[in-house]
């Protein structure tokens, strides 16, 4: 029965996601687009945390993908779909370069080092008008070209079309991230985090695997940045500052990072809280205050994140069934 239910639940979930934007207003549809992009961002960040490293420069790496794709499509005439891929590749290559100084550090020092590296990159964007546009950034970025697949015509000035497009890309990226985590490489990432001395004694090159996780996570963050740049049409240094990074950290911590779905829970629930509840109550400007309070409360009272509540609920189901059988 469980084997039959899985594809049925998957199909129902997919149908719900396809129908979701049609019941929302235009502004809510735009929020939905950014939510999908942010899910890829926070999930790419989770891959890095599998090795035990937490970065404060991940949002800047997202910006690297956004700038790279914007410059390639606008100045070099690269097609937007190719630009999305090249944005991710550029972010991954930069991560490999940054790994040489950063992975001489570990833990808290890596955290501070990643913040410093990110700020250096942002200052370069601000300082040079050519090619980065200085403080104003780059505007007039080429949008995704419209196309039709027979039964549906994609008009990318409409958020619904971009939601479907970004959703398909993000779904594929999440599948790849899941496959990486379940592969021997992903298991080695866990070993590097929890048993680094034992892994090293077994012949695992710790620095190489940390670099690999950093590069893969940065690549997917770069794709998220490129998706955002080609939807908004502009990119500037302030879109990737430390305030945005704190939001990503909050999504990951509140949701939890031990399960694949934890950061998604945190991102979705906090986005709903911010964009619907706080904005509806007129507290939009107080978002950093609420996010800070939520992070502190989560660390104190829910250290394993929202995913721990889901795990407890799932664990109770077999117990309840066995209790009924025992009573019978």
Structural features, described:
The structure is a single chain. The chain is an all-alpha fold and 328 residues long. The chain contains 13 helices and two strands. A two-stranded antiparallel sheet has the order 1-2. α6 (159-182) runs antiparallel to α9, α7 (184-194) crosses α9 and α10 (242-255) packs parallel to α12 (287-301). The longest helix has 27 residues, at 206-232. The mean pLDDT is 88.
| Cα radius of gyration in angstroms | 21 Å
Please tally the β strands and state the result.
2
User: How does the major sheet shape up?
Assistant: 2 strands, antiparallel
C-alpha geometry: globular
List the helices and strands and how they pair.
Layout (H helix, E strand, L loop, with lengths): L1 H18 L6 H24 L8 H18 L4 H23 L5 H20 L19 E2 L4 E2 L4 H24 L1 H11 L1 H6 L4 H27 L9 H14 L6 H19 L6 H15 L5 H21 L1
Antiparallel strand pairs: 1-2
Helix pairs in contact: 2-6, 2-9, 2-10, 2-11, 3-4, 3-5, 3-9, 4-9, 6-7, 6-9, 7-9, 10-11, 10-12
Keywords:
328 residues; mainly alpha; two-stranded antiparallel ribbon; 13 helices; 2 strands; 1% strand; globular
Give a short summary of the structure:
The protein has 328 residues and is an all-alpha fold. It contains 13 helices and two strands, in the order αααααββαααααααα.
